Input
Amino acid sequence: NQNSKEAEFGIPSSHDILSIDRATILPSVDDSSCSIVFNGKHLQQLTSEDVIGSQFETLTDAENFYSNYSKVMGFSIRKNDIRYDNDGQTNVRRWVCNREGERAKKYVERKDRIREPRAVTRVKCPAAFRVKMNKKVGTWVVNQFIPEHSHELAMNYEIKFLRSHRSVKDCDMAQATAMKTVGIKTSQIMD
Output
């Protein structure tokens, strides 16, 4: 169920509208579906043409957009490339699917291996999102968005275990810290 999926991920409700100048993430008007809309399209239906050229106020806004997109779609992201200008300021940032690239051949083809090799996690996935600073306007402009993947995406119940979406909520952390300060053992807190 899409409604429960978005509620589970902490995606904004119709009362929490995250507004970014020129690139807006809004919940749909129909509260029954409660899906995120970006430039008039649901995140699941976005194409490269819909996203390329969009502008974000800050680098964090761009990262939050791609993180929310990856959560809804069912994949994990990681930072890949960063470039700086002559002043040392970031002017290009790129995020990729965590399954982008491939393992170095020297690790795959080892003959003196004692242990079993780890499972293959890199499968040359092309999915990527890159933004570049437009210094004239002072915004981050999307100049690359590749939504295609070379692997199966995670199911709804698996997404919360993906590395970029795994986190302890602030309220849970505060409660665990409070329990620790009053003398409750960590093993008892986790129960």
Notes: Strands lie at 25-27, 36-38, 41-42, 55-56, 77-84, 90-97, 128-134, 139-146. Confidence is low (pLDDT under 50) at residues 1-34. Helices lie at 2-8, 48-51, 59-73, 105-108, 170-181, 186-190. The longest helix spans residues 59-73.
